[in-house]
Amino acid sequence: MQAVAVWPERRSVDVVEVAAPALGSPLEVRLRMLAVGVCGTDAEICSFSYGGTPPEGEESLIVGHEAIGLVIETGPEVSRLRTGDLAVPMVRRPCTVPHCSPCRSGHPDFCVTGEYTERGIKGAHGFLAGEVVEEERYLVAVPPPLREVGVLTEPLTIAEKALRQFVEVRRRFPWLSTASEAELLAGGSAVVLGAGAVGILGCMLLRQRGFQVVVYSRGRKPNPSAALVESLGAAYVSSEETPLVEVSRRAGAIDLVYEATGASKLAFDALQYLGANGVFVFTGVPGRKARVEIAADAIMRNLVLRNQTVLGTVNAGRADYEAAIRDLELFQAAWPGALAALITGRYPMSRFCDRARSHDKIKDVIEPADAK
Ligand code: BGC
Protein backbone atom coordinates (compact mmCIF):
# COMPACT_ATOMS: atom_id res chain seq x y z
CA MET A 1 0.00 0.00 0.00
CA GLN A 2 0.98 3.63 -0.32
CA ALA A 3 1.74 6.04 2.51
CA VAL A 4 3.26 9.51 2.89
CA ALA A 5 6.40 9.56 5.03
CA VAL A 6 8.85 12.19 6.22
CA TRP A 7 12.61 11.54 6.44
CA PRO A 8 13.96 14.24 8.76
CA GLU A 9 17.64 13.35 8.19
CA ARG A 10 17.45 13.66 4.42
CA ARG A 11 14.80 16.39 4.68
CA SER A 12 12.30 14.84 2.33
CA VAL A 13 8.61 13.94 2.36
CA ASP A 14 7.58 11.28 -0.16
CA VAL A 15 4.83 8.92 -1.20
CA VAL A 16 6.23 5.46 -0.45
CA GLU A 17 5.25 1.83 -0.86
CA VAL A 18 5.02 0.05 2.51
CA ALA A 19 3.67 -3.28 3.71
CA ALA A 20 -0.01 -3.17 4.73
CA PRO A 21 -0.37 -3.51 8.52
CA ALA A 22 -1.82 -6.67 10.09
CA LEU A 23 -3.65 -7.04 13.40
CA GLY A 24 -1.08 -7.56 16.16
CA SER A 25 -3.46 -8.17 19.07
CA PRO A 26 -7.07 -9.33 19.57
CA LEU A 27 -7.99 -5.79 20.65
CA GLU A 28 -6.96 -4.17 17.38
CA VAL A 29 -8.95 -2.91 14.42
CA ARG A 30 -7.84 -2.51 10.79
CA LEU A 31 -9.11 0.57 8.96
CA ARG A 32 -9.08 1.59 5.32
CA MET A 33 -8.33 5.30 5.47
CA LEU A 34 -10.92 7.47 3.74
CA ALA A 35 -9.58 10.97 4.33
CA VAL A 36 -6.73 12.65 6.19
CA GLY A 37 -6.76 16.40 6.87
CA VAL A 38 -3.73 18.66 6.50
CA CYS A 39 -3.09 21.40 9.09
CA GLY A 40 -0.52 23.86 10.38
CA THR A 41 1.36 21.11 12.19
CA ASP A 42 1.73 19.26 8.88
CA ALA A 43 3.14 22.46 7.33
CA GLU A 44 5.73 22.52 10.12
CA ILE A 45 6.53 18.85 9.52
CA CYS A 46 7.02 19.60 5.81
CA SER A 47 9.42 22.42 6.67
CA PHE A 48 11.20 20.22 9.27
CA SER A 49 10.61 22.79 12.02
CA TYR A 50 8.29 20.83 14.37
CA GLY A 51 7.15 17.23 14.69
CA GLY A 52 8.02 14.61 12.10
CA THR A 53 9.93 12.52 14.67
CA PRO A 54 10.24 8.87 13.52
CA PRO A 55 9.47 6.01 15.90
CA GLU A 56 12.48 4.84 17.94
CA GLY A 57 15.02 3.07 15.73
CA GLU A 58 13.39 4.14 12.44
CA GLU A 59 14.43 6.76 9.92
CA SER A 60 11.04 7.88 8.69
CA LEU A 61 7.59 8.68 10.01
CA ILE A 62 4.28 8.13 8.26
CA VAL A 63 2.47 11.46 8.62
CA GLY A 64 -1.21 12.36 9.05
CA HIS A 65 -3.13 12.81 12.30
CA GLU A 66 -6.58 14.17 11.38
CA ALA A 67 -8.29 11.14 9.92
CA ILE A 68 -11.36 9.06 9.30
CA GLY A 69 -11.37 5.42 8.23
CA LEU A 70 -13.65 2.51 7.48
CA VAL A 71 -13.37 -0.57 9.69
CA ILE A 72 -12.36 -3.55 7.52
CA GLU A 73 -11.24 -6.07 10.15
CA THR A 74 -11.68 -6.46 13.91
CA GLY A 75 -9.77 -8.62 16.38
CA PRO A 76 -11.75 -11.23 18.37
CA GLU A 77 -11.78 -9.08 21.53
CA VAL A 78 -13.00 -5.89 19.85
CA SER A 79 -16.38 -5.22 21.45
CA ARG A 80 -17.92 -2.05 20.02
CA LEU A 81 -16.71 -1.53 16.46
CA ARG A 82 -17.85 -3.74 13.55
CA THR A 83 -16.69 -4.16 9.98
CA GLY A 84 -18.29 -1.39 7.90
CA ASP A 85 -18.32 1.16 10.75
CA LEU A 86 -16.66 4.54 10.40
CA ALA A 87 -14.10 5.54 13.02
CA VAL A 88 -11.78 8.42 13.87
CA PRO A 89 -8.45 7.59 15.55
CA MET A 90 -7.17 9.65 18.48
CA VAL A 91 -3.70 11.20 18.12
CA ARG A 92 -1.80 10.96 21.40
CA ARG A 93 -0.57 7.83 23.22
CA PRO A 94 0.60 7.86 26.86
CA CYS A 95 4.19 7.94 28.05
CA THR A 96 5.37 4.98 30.11
CA VAL A 97 6.75 6.92 33.10
CA PRO A 98 5.21 5.52 36.32
CA HIS A 99 4.77 8.92 38.06
CA CYS A 100 2.96 10.58 35.14
CA SER A 101 -0.49 10.72 36.73
CA PRO A 102 -2.26 12.07 33.60
CA CYS A 103 -0.92 9.24 31.42
CA ARG A 104 -1.46 6.61 34.10
CA SER A 105 -5.09 7.72 34.45
CA GLY A 106 -5.80 7.69 30.70
CA HIS A 107 -5.32 11.41 30.00
CA PRO A 108 -2.14 11.67 27.90
CA ASP A 109 -3.31 15.02 26.53
CA PHE A 110 -2.11 16.38 29.91
CA CYS A 111 1.16 14.34 29.95
CA VAL A 112 3.76 15.94 32.24
CA THR A 113 6.90 14.18 31.03
CA GLY A 114 6.74 15.12 27.35
CA GLU A 115 7.50 11.48 26.54
CA TYR A 116 4.09 10.80 25.01
CA THR A 117 3.90 9.83 21.36
CA GLU A 118 1.54 11.33 18.78
CA ARG A 119 0.57 9.36 15.71
CA GLY A 120 1.76 11.17 12.59
CA ILE A 121 3.65 13.82 14.60
CA LYS A 122 6.00 12.39 17.23
CA GLY A 123 7.38 8.90 17.59
CA ALA A 124 4.45 6.89 16.15
CA HIS A 125 3.35 6.39 12.56
CA GLY A 126 0.34 8.37 11.41
CA PHE A 127 -2.72 7.77 9.33
CA LEU A 128 -1.84 8.97 5.82
CA ALA A 129 -1.67 5.45 4.45
CA GLY A 130 -3.99 3.10 2.61
CA GLU A 131 -4.62 1.14 5.80
CA VAL A 132 -3.99 1.62 9.50
CA VAL A 133 -4.17 -0.71 12.53
CA GLU A 134 -5.17 0.71 15.88
CA GLU A 135 -6.42 -0.51 19.26
CA GLU A 136 -10.15 -0.09 19.69
CA ARG A 137 -9.67 2.09 22.80
CA TYR A 138 -8.08 4.78 20.62
CA LEU A 139 -10.88 4.76 18.04
CA VAL A 140 -14.12 6.69 18.20
CA ALA A 141 -17.14 5.54 16.17
CA VAL A 142 -18.63 8.02 13.71
CA PRO A 143 -22.28 7.83 12.52
CA PRO A 144 -22.69 7.25 8.74
CA PRO A 145 -24.22 10.70 8.01
CA LEU A 146 -20.86 12.23 9.03
CA ARG A 147 -18.85 10.20 6.50
CA GLU A 148 -17.85 13.20 4.35
CA VAL A 149 -17.13 15.61 7.23
CA GLY A 150 -15.96 13.25 10.01
CA VAL A 151 -12.37 14.18 9.12
CA LEU A 152 -13.11 17.48 10.90
CA THR A 153 -13.49 15.68 14.23
CA GLU A 154 -9.86 16.03 15.33
CA PRO A 155 -9.58 19.81 14.70
CA LEU A 156 -12.92 20.27 16.48
CA THR A 157 -11.60 18.37 19.53
CA ILE A 158 -9.18 21.26 20.11
CA ALA A 159 -12.16 23.60 20.64
CA GLU A 160 -14.05 21.00 22.68
CA LYS A 161 -11.18 20.66 25.12
CA ALA A 162 -10.72 24.45 25.23
CA LEU A 163 -14.39 25.01 26.01
CA ARG A 164 -14.28 22.37 28.74
CA GLN A 165 -11.32 24.21 30.30
CA PHE A 166 -13.23 27.49 30.03
CA VAL A 167 -16.20 25.96 31.86
CA GLU A 168 -13.94 24.67 34.64
CA VAL A 169 -12.35 28.09 35.05
CA ARG A 170 -15.75 29.83 35.19
CA ARG A 171 -16.89 27.39 37.81
CA ARG A 172 -14.33 28.77 40.23
CA PHE A 173 -16.50 31.85 40.69
CA PRO A 174 -18.49 31.30 43.90
CA TRP A 175 -21.79 32.53 42.42
CA LEU A 176 -21.43 30.07 39.50
CA SER A 177 -20.23 27.03 41.42
CA THR A 178 -23.55 25.21 41.09
CA ALA A 179 -24.53 26.56 37.65
CA SER A 180 -25.15 24.13 34.79
CA GLU A 181 -22.79 24.18 31.81
CA ALA A 182 -25.46 25.91 29.71
CA GLU A 183 -25.86 28.61 32.36
CA LEU A 184 -22.11 29.09 32.56
CA LEU A 185 -21.91 29.69 28.82
CA ALA A 186 -25.15 31.61 28.24
CA GLY A 187 -24.80 35.12 26.86
CA GLY A 188 -21.02 34.96 26.63
CA SER A 189 -19.01 37.14 24.29
CA ALA A 190 -16.06 35.56 22.47
CA VAL A 191 -13.40 36.67 20.05
CA VAL A 192 -11.84 33.98 17.86
CA LEU A 193 -8.42 34.83 16.45
CA GLY A 194 -8.00 33.21 13.04
CA ALA A 195 -10.41 31.94 10.40
CA GLY A 196 -8.68 28.69 9.51
CA ALA A 197 -10.38 25.37 10.23
CA VAL A 198 -9.58 25.44 13.97
CA GLY A 199 -10.91 29.00 14.25
CA ILE A 200 -14.10 28.39 12.28
CA LEU A 201 -14.85 25.11 14.08
CA GLY A 202 -14.29 26.98 17.36
CA CYS A 203 -16.69 29.67 16.14
CA MET A 204 -19.29 27.00 15.31
CA LEU A 205 -18.98 25.48 18.77
CA LEU A 206 -19.27 28.83 20.50
CA ARG A 207 -22.25 29.88 18.39
CA GLN A 208 -23.91 26.53 19.07
CA ARG A 209 -23.52 27.18 22.81
CA GLY A 210 -25.05 30.66 22.50
CA PHE A 211 -22.00 32.95 22.45
CA GLN A 212 -21.85 36.19 20.50
CA VAL A 213 -18.72 35.68 18.39
CA VAL A 214 -16.38 37.96 16.47
CA VAL A 215 -13.81 36.20 14.28
CA TYR A 216 -10.73 38.35 13.72
CA SER A 217 -8.59 37.26 10.80
CA ARG A 218 -6.24 38.64 8.19
CA GLY A 219 -8.11 38.44 4.86
CA ARG A 220 -10.35 41.25 3.71
CA LYS A 221 -13.97 40.57 2.90
CA PRO A 222 -15.34 39.15 0.71
CA ASN A 223 -13.62 35.78 1.13
CA PRO A 224 -14.93 32.22 1.68
CA SER A 225 -13.99 32.09 5.39
CA ALA A 226 -15.78 35.39 6.07
CA ALA A 227 -18.89 34.16 4.24
CA LEU A 228 -18.87 30.97 6.27
CA VAL A 229 -18.39 32.81 9.56
CA GLU A 230 -21.27 35.19 8.79
CA SER A 231 -23.53 32.28 7.83
CA LEU A 232 -23.07 31.07 11.43
CA GLY A 233 -24.41 34.35 12.79
CA ALA A 234 -20.94 35.51 13.87
CA ALA A 235 -19.17 38.71 12.81
CA TYR A 236 -16.03 38.59 10.66
CA VAL A 237 -13.52 41.41 11.03
CA SER A 238 -10.37 41.74 8.94
CA SER A 239 -7.19 42.76 10.74
CA GLU A 240 -6.14 44.52 7.53
CA GLU A 241 -9.05 46.92 7.89
CA THR A 242 -9.86 47.15 11.58
CA PRO A 243 -7.57 47.49 14.62
CA LEU A 244 -8.11 45.25 17.63
CA VAL A 245 -9.21 48.15 19.80
CA GLU A 246 -12.20 48.61 17.51
CA VAL A 247 -13.06 44.89 17.83
CA SER A 248 -13.05 45.21 21.60
CA ARG A 249 -15.41 48.20 21.37
CA ARG A 250 -17.79 46.18 19.19
CA ALA A 251 -17.59 42.96 21.19
CA GLY A 252 -18.15 44.61 24.59
CA ALA A 253 -16.69 42.81 27.61
CA ILE A 254 -14.89 39.80 26.14
CA ASP A 255 -15.37 36.65 28.24
CA LEU A 256 -13.28 34.37 26.06
CA VAL A 257 -10.56 34.80 23.47
CA TYR A 258 -10.00 31.59 21.50
CA GLU A 259 -6.62 31.90 19.82
CA ALA A 260 -6.29 29.81 16.67
CA THR A 261 -3.48 31.40 14.64
CA GLY A 262 -0.19 30.58 16.36
CA ALA A 263 0.73 34.26 15.81
CA SER A 264 2.20 35.37 19.14
CA LYS A 265 2.23 39.12 18.50
CA LEU A 266 -1.44 39.20 17.55
CA ALA A 267 -2.33 36.99 20.51
CA PHE A 268 -0.58 39.14 23.13
CA ASP A 269 -2.01 42.29 21.59
CA ALA A 270 -5.49 40.77 21.85
CA LEU A 271 -4.85 39.75 25.47
CA GLN A 272 -4.99 43.46 26.38
CA TYR A 273 -8.67 43.58 25.44
CA LEU A 274 -9.87 40.59 27.46
CA GLY A 275 -12.75 41.54 29.79
CA ALA A 276 -12.98 41.24 33.58
CA ASN A 277 -12.97 37.59 34.75
CA GLY A 278 -12.23 36.65 31.14
CA VAL A 279 -10.30 33.63 29.89
CA PHE A 280 -7.74 33.67 27.09
CA VAL A 281 -7.10 30.26 25.52
CA PHE A 282 -4.00 29.66 23.43
CA THR A 283 -4.15 26.75 20.95
CA GLY A 284 -1.55 27.71 18.32
CA VAL A 285 2.05 26.47 18.34
CA PRO A 286 4.22 29.29 16.96
CA GLY A 287 7.52 28.58 15.25
CA ARG A 288 10.59 29.95 17.01
CA LYS A 289 10.90 33.37 15.38
CA ALA A 290 12.33 36.76 16.36
CA ARG A 291 11.35 38.28 19.73
CA VAL A 292 8.23 40.40 19.66
CA GLU A 293 7.37 43.46 21.71
CA ILE A 294 4.27 43.21 23.86
CA ALA A 295 2.46 45.58 26.27
CA ALA A 296 3.61 43.58 29.29
CA ASP A 297 2.64 46.11 31.97
CA ALA A 298 -0.87 46.64 30.60
CA ILE A 299 -1.33 42.87 30.27
CA MET A 300 -0.10 42.17 33.79
CA ARG A 301 -2.21 44.98 35.30
CA ASN A 302 -5.31 43.57 33.60
CA LEU A 303 -4.57 40.00 34.61
CA VAL A 304 -4.45 41.08 38.23
CA LEU A 305 -7.02 43.85 38.42
CA ARG A 306 -9.54 41.96 36.27
CA ASN A 307 -9.06 38.41 37.65
CA GLN A 308 -8.20 37.10 34.22
CA THR A 309 -6.98 33.62 33.28
CA VAL A 310 -4.62 32.66 30.48
CA LEU A 311 -4.40 29.01 29.58
CA GLY A 312 -2.87 26.88 26.89
CA THR A 313 -4.44 23.69 25.64
CA VAL A 314 -3.06 20.95 23.45
CA ASN A 315 -4.44 17.74 21.98
CA ALA A 316 -7.65 16.20 23.33
CA GLY A 317 -9.04 13.21 25.19
CA ARG A 318 -11.72 10.66 24.37
CA ALA A 319 -14.47 12.78 25.95
CA ASP A 320 -13.54 15.62 23.58
CA TYR A 321 -13.69 13.29 20.55
CA GLU A 322 -17.10 12.02 21.58
CA ALA A 323 -18.32 15.57 22.17
CA ALA A 324 -16.92 16.65 18.79
CA ILE A 325 -18.84 13.91 16.99
CA ARG A 326 -22.09 14.88 18.74
CA ASP A 327 -21.45 18.52 17.88
CA LEU A 328 -20.68 17.80 14.21
CA GLU A 329 -24.20 16.34 14.04
CA LEU A 330 -25.64 19.45 15.72
CA PHE A 331 -23.72 21.69 13.31
CA GLN A 332 -25.04 19.71 10.32
CA ALA A 333 -28.58 20.27 11.55
CA ALA A 334 -28.11 23.96 12.43
CA TRP A 335 -26.12 25.04 9.37
CA PRO A 336 -26.61 22.54 6.53
CA GLY A 337 -23.67 22.62 4.13
CA ALA A 338 -21.40 24.67 6.43
CA LEU A 339 -19.13 21.77 7.42
CA ALA A 340 -18.86 20.60 3.82
CA ALA A 341 -17.89 24.18 2.85
CA LEU A 342 -14.98 24.02 5.31
CA ILE A 343 -13.44 21.27 3.20
CA THR A 344 -11.96 23.28 0.37
CA GLY A 345 -10.28 20.47 -1.58
CA ARG A 346 -9.65 16.73 -1.80
CA TYR A 347 -6.25 15.72 -3.15
CA PRO A 348 -4.07 12.66 -3.80
CA MET A 349 -1.20 11.74 -1.48
CA SER A 350 1.41 13.38 -3.71
CA ARG A 351 -0.07 16.80 -2.84
CA PHE A 352 0.36 16.50 0.95
CA CYS A 353 3.14 19.06 1.46
CA ASP A 354 1.97 21.51 -1.13
CA ARG A 355 -1.54 21.58 0.39
CA ALA A 356 -0.13 21.76 3.94
CA ARG A 357 1.88 24.85 3.00
CA SER A 358 -0.79 26.59 0.91
CA HIS A 359 -2.73 29.58 2.22
CA ASP A 360 -5.62 29.31 -0.24
CA LYS A 361 -7.57 26.76 1.74
CA ILE A 362 -9.66 26.31 4.85
CA LYS A 363 -9.32 22.54 5.31
CA ASP A 364 -7.84 20.41 2.55
CA VAL A 365 -7.95 16.66 2.86
CA ILE A 366 -5.88 13.93 1.28
CA GLU A 367 -7.62 10.81 0.07
CA PRO A 368 -5.41 7.71 -0.01
CA ALA A 369 -5.51 6.16 -3.49
CA ASP A 370 -7.75 3.21 -2.56
CA ALA A 371 -10.04 5.27 -0.31
CA LYS A 372 -13.37 4.52 -1.98
C1 BGC B 1 -2.67 18.30 16.78
C2 BGC B 1 -2.66 17.84 18.21
C3 BGC B 1 -1.22 17.75 18.72
C4 BGC B 1 -0.53 19.08 18.50
C5 BGC B 1 0.90 19.09 19.00
C6 BGC B 1 -1.87 19.57 16.61
O1 BGC B 1 -1.81 19.88 15.26
O2 BGC B 1 -4.00 18.57 16.36
O3 BGC B 1 -3.28 16.58 18.30
O4 BGC B 1 -1.23 17.43 20.07
O5 BGC B 1 -0.55 19.39 17.12
O6 BGC B 1 1.72 18.15 18.38
In short:
The chain is built from 12 helices and 19 strands. By secondary structure, the protein is of the alpha/beta class.
- The 3D shape can be described as globular
Q: What share of residues is helical?
A: 25-40%
Mean pLDDT: 96
What structural class do helix, strand and pairing data support? alpha/beta
Q: Tell me the span between the first and last alpha carbons.
A: 14 Å
The CATH topology annotation of the largest domain reads as Quinone Oxidoreductase, Chain A, domain 1
Under the CATH scheme, which class of the largest domain?
Alpha Beta
Number of strands: 19
Ligand species: beta-D-glucopyranose
Task: Enumerate the spans where pLDDT stays under 50 for 5 or more consecutive residues.
Answer: none
Chain-wise SSE layout:
Blueprint: E1 2-7, E2 12-17, E3 28-37, H1 40-46, E4 61-62, E5 66-74, E6 86-89, E7 92-93, H2 101-104, E8 117-119, E9 123-124, E10 131-135, E11 139-142, H3 153-170, H4 181-185, E12 189-193, H5 197-208, E13 212-217, H6 224-231, E14 235-238, H7 244-251, E15 254-259, H8 264-271, E16 274-282, H9 296-305, E17 309-312, H10 318-334, H11 338-342, E18 343-347, H12 352-357, E19 363-366
Parallel strand pairs: 8-9, 12-13, 12-15, 13-14, 15-16, 16-17, 18-19
Antiparallel strand pairs: 1-2, 1-4, 3-5, 3-10, 3-19, 5-6, 6-11, 7-8
Helix pairs in contact: 3-5, 3-10
This protein binds beta-D-glucopyranose.
The site of beta-D-glucopyranose has 11 residues, from loops.
